[in-house]
C-alpha cells in the first residue's frame, strides 16, 4: 500500500512543480511582451518597468490570455502604434518561447 501512496505523492509533487513552472513562464512572458510593447510605444525605462508590472497584473483579471491581449492592443492603439490582435498574439508566442528558454537556463 505504501508503494501506491508514494507514487501518488510523487505525482502530486510533479503536478505542483509543473503548475509553478507554467505560472513562472507566463509571468515572464507577460513581462517580456510588455517590454516589446513599451519599445513600440517609446516609453522610458521607468515607464517600461511600470508598464510591465501593469501587464503582469492584467493577466489576473480572467483566465487565459484575452485580458493581456486586450490590454496590449488597446495600449498600443492609444499610443498611435499600429497593432492588431494577430500581431500581439504572435508576439506573445515568441516571448513564451523566450521565457521558457530563460527559465530553463536559470535552473
UniProtKB/TrEMBL annotation:
It holds the Pfam family ATPaseInh_sub_z. This is DUF1476 family protein. It comes from Sphingomonas carotinifaciens.
Amino acid at each position: 500500500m505504501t508503494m501506491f501512496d508514494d507514487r501518488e505523492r510523487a505525482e502530486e509533487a510533479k503536478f505542483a512543480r509543473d503548475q509553478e513552472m507554467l505560472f513562472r513562464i507566463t509571468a515572464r512572458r507577460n513581462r517580456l511582451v510588455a517590454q516589446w510593447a513599451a519599445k513600440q510605444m517609446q516609453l522610458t525605462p521607468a515607464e517600461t518597468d511600470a508598464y510591465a508590472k501593469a501587464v503582469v497584473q492584467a493577466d489576473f483579471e480572467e483566465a487565459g490570455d484575452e485580458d493581456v491581449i486586450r490590454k496590449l492592443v488597446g495600449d498600443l492603439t492609444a499610443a498611435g502604434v499600429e497593432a492588431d490582435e494577430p500581431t500581439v498574439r504572435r508576439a506573445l508566442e515568441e516571448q513564451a518561447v523566450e521565457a521558457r528558454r530563460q527559465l530553463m537556463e536559470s535552473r
